[in-house]
């Protein structure tokens, strides 16, 4: 808990904002990610609306602060209050709901306009367990994502498919951006010859049962 | 019955009866009867009636006896009482001085000044707490002057010499040999306090009238309030003075006479004057005072009071801050007083913390902090953004200082976060009056916000995401209470802690019957709670936290999320319009007028 910047001491701190229409599963996504890894008592006092997650990626200690937002259309105008100063954004849509995908497109436009290229955008199609009702084709979404310099993932929070990869990729990209913007100002926190392989280690490293995923 | 030994309180209605009751309880039946007898002879009203009845019945001797008893007791014991009446007391003081009776003179003066203390206390009390506050203020004011006189007296005489209420209290402690004596002392104590209270309440009523009155003639109103008390006192004293003079001729011990002329205003306006105003009445004194520019403390206070009143009447609304008792006064003198009283209290706390650090570090931090505080007071009329920059710079500087020390000195255990926290707390509390909602524009905005939220309270139903179970309502109310508490704490960190506690309740409210809570639920619940509580100065509190709090706490972690959500909810409500609720303008207008009715009904 140090000073105001995103990097304090050895820990890189990132603000990630969750955007997307109501009921697309933003909260379930984060809950699945955080709760599967952590003892529920580590949940923040504000529970699922604000969560922190500590990671160790290739020797770089990272703390993710994940900010949930209200998805209802009437609260759309409040977006800027939430996404200012964020380094990453998860734009979530429901693959069975085309409208939610259009909503994501709106968010992308707005974020690029307001934050430029400094923010890592990840577009996530949720509810792959309902593939039979799919309304948004995987190709369409992927093409759109690459056209706006964003990354696309599909996952299922319900069946816990693809969740880890999303956050890992997001973290990796945010670290890269933070280091490239910082290089020249400061010597790299992780020192020379750092390992390019990504290793995710749970913060509670002494507890072997928590070591799973991409170790 | 020996008339010269009648205790003073036997003359006062109710108290005399109580005394005899106490005496009966203590098996002092004879004493009780004596008290009753004394009462009927010596009470101002009753004795006159009794002597009249006796006169009518042809019992001239008895009537004379009653009158004499009253006068003697009145004079002997009444000195203390009459001294307490401002006008009479001060005049009596002059007479004492004129007769070279310095002791008696200063005694009378002191007692009169004491009454002024009561009035001053009452005016203060009334502005804060209404009639009850005025009474309490009166008692407090009286006691304060007593304490002051006691201190002065004790210093002069080199021994403990209590004054006023304290003297009676001391007597109460010392005399506990018989029930009657204890009662006399206790009664004196109680009566002094009670009279202070009554006097205070009267003055307080006047002061309140003045404070809420929009008539431009402020001075006239305030003076008439004071004169109102004066009349009551003079009515009593006038009767006393003529009879006192009558008695003197017979007694031969005190050789002075009070004539009506002595009491009148020197200007000859026909009203009564006071010694404090050079024998002038309130109106003449003020006229004279405006001509000659004296710099007197009481005058400064009075002008400040007028100034404040004028401002209130110009604005024509009672601001939220006034209601909360927060001072927005830009009066230099006043702020210095605030600064110094706060400084003493918080400096100690801050210094205690600094002693745990290494001496050179503590000196450096203390120097930086004090310099910034002085600068803030100097720049108080600048926009808050400027002040905010200074405060934020201080946080960075202090953080750097601690960092450098920790790098150079391995034994330095100070955590920069901790030090900055303390500095923040100290600066916020000390300079709160000039940092928090200090401009009139901000105050006006606060009032408008309150009115606006009141007018859109009808949209509440739109934001209920859960059934209104008792638990839900309970959590919402507690969250609202935390929002209200924002005005009770002064440092940005404490305000943030309030907001976090508020959100713990809001989270609990939106998780009712569910395991977790997403922003989809939390946000509408927040909007609902803000609508329901409509806490005063919410915008000012949000601004204060972001400007004078530590940026890390405002934008990170639980506190950052809670702050942002509250900010967003309030922004949402302020910008609410029909299109957001997806209703037509007509429907909106209808609801607004209906909502206004509901509000006005509620107020009625």
Work out the radius of gyration of chain B. Answer: 32 Å
* CATH architecture call of chain A: 3-Layer(aba) Sandwich
Distance between the termini of chain A: 27 Å
The global form of chain B is: extended
What is the CATH T-level topology of chain A? Rossmann fold
Tell me the CATH superfamily of chain A: P-loop containing nucleotide triphosphate hydrolases
Overall helicity of chain A: 25-40%
Mean pLDDT of chain A: 80
Biggest sheet features of chain B: none
What structural class do the secondary elements of chain B suggest?
mainly alpha
Say how many strands of chain A there are: 8
Structural class of the secondary elements of chain A? alpha/beta
Radius of gyration of chain A: 17 Å
**CATH class of chain A, anyone?**
Alpha Beta
Q: Give the largest chain-chain interface (CB within 8 Å).
A: A-B, 34 and 36 residues
